[in-house]
Design goal:
The complex is a heterodimer. By secondary structure, chain A is α+β, with helices and mostly antiparallel strands. Chain A has one domain (about 5-140). Chain A is built from three helices and nine strands. Chain A has helices at about 5-55, 65-70, 80-95; strands at about 55-60, 60, 75, 80, 100-105, 110-115, 120-125, 125-130, 135-140. In chain A, the strands form three sheets. In chain A, strands 5, 6, 7, 8 and 9 form a five-stranded antiparallel β-sheet that branches. In chain A, strands 1-2 form a two-stranded antiparallel sheet. In chain A, strands 3-4 form a two-stranded antiparallel sheet. In chain A, helix 2 (about 65-70) packs across helix 3 (about 80-95). The longest helix of chain A is centred in the N-terminal third of the chain and has 53 residues, at about 5-55. Chain A is rod-shaped. Chain B starts with a helix and ends with a strand. Chain B is rod-shaped and about 100 Å long. Chain B is about 45% helix and about 35% strand. A six-stranded mixed β-sheet of chain B has the order 1-2-5-6-3-4. Chain B has a domain at about 50-150. Classes of the chains: A alpha+beta, B alpha+beta. The interface of A and B includes residues 5, 12, 16 and 41 of A.
């Protein structure tokens, strides 16, 4: 075999190896896209959950008013508001398939109440109640 | 064998090896492309199925509105009417089952919004999400569980 032919075959092998590496790299890129989809689903679920809790009626008012009362250390529905909210939200999140964490933070950055336990997860948008309370839900990642 | 014949044989061998390598490459590329297209279709169907959790509460057929202003919730009056009238939404929802269950306050009430089963299916995928519900009969906001099942 001539030297030139040997060099051409060597070049072909290099090209084939480069193509194979590119295909493997492409595959990894495609796999990382699917994790983005899962995150967007969890984000939608977290937003749906926070919105549903915010809107729901509780006694003669709604959860939004009860959460504000909790941060102001007031009673709601003739009961200690934070305890009432924690009990009601615990019963709601039991119906969820995922582990959920719900919290409200007052204007000074203090946590008014929290339900659930989550190390890492996807949080919903924060709802601002009466410019003094931030409320959000978080869907926990499966470890 | 003469030197010229030997060189021609060498060239033919090189050509054969080159063509075999090219064919192997083409077959691999074809298989990869086909499997990648199949994976894309599956991923598209899967994301379409998952996006129903986001889309359903916001479609006008179910979405709450008050004096023309849209709200982020599902109107149980509309859901009830939709499930009773049984419109043909196969083009939009396909082979799926959509149910809404009232979970807060505790009520033993659920709505079978849509159901279309294929004659045969291999598996059922299920996703659910808590959603805000508005009950116009009681003028109250409740919490429901929207469940979408996909027959594939």
């Amino acid at each position: 075999m001539k030297r030139a032919q040997t060099e051409i075959i060597g070049l072909m092998i290099v090209v084939i190896m480069l193509v194979a590496i590119a295909l493997v790299a492409l595959r990894f890129v495609l796999i990382s896209n699917s994790s983005i989809n899962v995150d967007s689903l969890l984000s939608a679920k977290a937003n749906n959950m926070a919105n549903s809790i915010k809107n729901a009626n509780l006694c003669d008012g709604n959860f939004e008013q009860a959460i504000v009362a909790c941060c102001n250390k007031e009673n709601f529905c003739d009961r200690e508001s934070c305890r009432l909210i924690s009990e009601e939200i615990s019963s709601i999140i039991n119906s969820s398939e995922e582990s959920v964490y719900v919290e409200a933070i007052d204007a000074y950055g203090n946590k008014c109440f929290s339900v659930g336990n989550c190390i890492s997860g996807i949080a919903s948008s924060s709802y601002n109640f009466e410019n003094e309370v931030l409320f959000r839900a978080k869907i926990c990642r499966k470890e | 064998m003469k030197k010229g014949q030997l060189q021609i044989q060498e060239s033919i061998f090189v050509l054969i090896i080159f063509i075999v390598l090219l064919l192997i490459g083409l077959i691999m590329f074809y298989n990869f492309t086909i499997s990648s297209i199949k994976a894309d279709i599956a991923s598209y169907e899967s994301s379409k199925f998952r996006s129903l959790i986001e889309i359903l509460p916001s479609i006008p057929e179910f979405r709450c509105s008050n004096l023309g202003q849209e709200q982020e919730c599902i109107d149980l009056g509309k859901v009830d009417a939709f499930s009773k009238l049984g419109f043909d939404y196969f083009k939009e929802f396909g082979y799926r089952k959509i149910t809404i269950e009232v979970i807060y306050p505790k009520e033993d009430k659920s709505y079978n919004v849509y159901e279309k089963r294929p004659r045969s299916f291999k598996s059922i995928k299920r996703i659910s999400s808590l959603i805000s519900l508005y009950d116009p009969g009681q003028d109250k906001y409740k919490i429901g569980k929207l469940t979408v099942e996909d027959y594939s």
